[in-house]
Design goal:
The chain is mainly beta. It folds into 2 domains: about 140 residues, no CATH class; about 80 residues, Beta Barrel (Elongation Factor Tu (Ef-tu), domain 3). Helices cover about 5% and strands about 35% of the residues. The strands form 4 sheets. Strands 1, 2, 4, 5, 6, 7 and 9 form a 7-stranded antiparallel sheet that branches. The chain has a 6-stranded antiparallel beta barrel with strand order 10-12-15-14-13-17. The longest helix has 9 residues.
Length: about 250
């Protein structure tokens, strides 16, 4: 921060009076008070068939040396300020796109969106801002991008258990950090969303095709939709009879 306004804010907060080897730190983050399942959902992965816009980004921190990784309590810089509508107290998700090194994000080779945590704006300049890392799902890194923070609502699955719709199978995609194998409690993405009738709380049965002639599909377990977009959804495994892997089938109960 170089403006007199920001320097005055930081000096008043005692953030400039540090030793050369110390990191300047904002207010210590308190406990979120959120249920564990809500925190898990806030940190759950998403799928992207194209790279999302990333105008707001983490550009560094307040340290004597250059760092790439930050943790709860650290101060990070944002490449936007009052001229961009940033205000003290605003909260943002910190997210990271994870793509194959060989293939761009597309419907055939989707990217994973990793939620690294969230931050709260602490001081604002005309062109830049400082924010405190308030919660970490993963380490917050330089060039991670920001989206407005909205607390997720954990959907309640219906008590009804209709038969799975077997004529319109979807497919298991990837999970957190591009994982390809899942068990009970894990989150993963599927190529079915609201355009296909999926709603939060929708229940799914998971199957595997063993590619054997005159054989039934093998039932692997069950999952529930916890986050839904038009063309994809994030599911959480509720029952696991065997490992669930990328490419397995999903059938919605409806």
């Amino acid at each position: 921060m170089t403006s007199r306004r920001t320097l005055g804010i930081l000096a008043g907060a005692g953030l400039l009076a540090v030793t050369p080897v110390s990191a300047q730190r904002g207010p210590a983050p308190g406990a979120t008070g959120l249920p564990a399942e809500v925190l898990s959902l806030a940190c759950a992965p998403r799928v992207a068939y194209e790279i999302p816009p990333m105008p707001l980004r983490i550009t560094g921190g307040q340290d004597a040396t250059a760092r790439q990784i930050y943790f709860p309590g650290d101060l990070v810089t944002i490449n936007a300020g009052m001229r961009n509508g940033i205000e003290v107290g605003q909260q943002f998700y910190v997210r990271r796109r994870q793509v194959s090194r060989r293939d761009p994000a597309s419907r055939e080779t989707p990217a994973t969106i990793r939620t690294a945590g969230w931050i709260q704006v602490y001081a604002v300049d005309d062109m830049m801002s400082l924010a405190t890392v308030t919660h970490a799902c993963d380490t917050v890194q330089v060039d991670d991008y920001l989206e407005p923070f909205v607390l997720p609502v954990m959907p309640t699955p219906s008590a009804d258990r209709p038969k799975p719709q077997r004529e319109n199978y979807g497919h298991v995609l990837m999970g957190q950090d591009r994982r390809r194998s899942f068990g009970k409690g894990d989150f993963f993405m599927v190529d079915r969303g609201s355009d296909h009738g999926v709603t939060p709380g929708a229940q799914f049965v998971l199957y595997r095709d063993k590619h054997l002639a005159e054989n039934f599909l093998f039932e692997l377990g069950e999952a529930v939709a916890v986050d839904v977009t038009p063309d994809s959804s994030t599911l959480q495994v509720t029952v696991s009879l065997d490992a669930i892997t990328e490419g397995d089938y999903v059938a919605m109960r409806r």
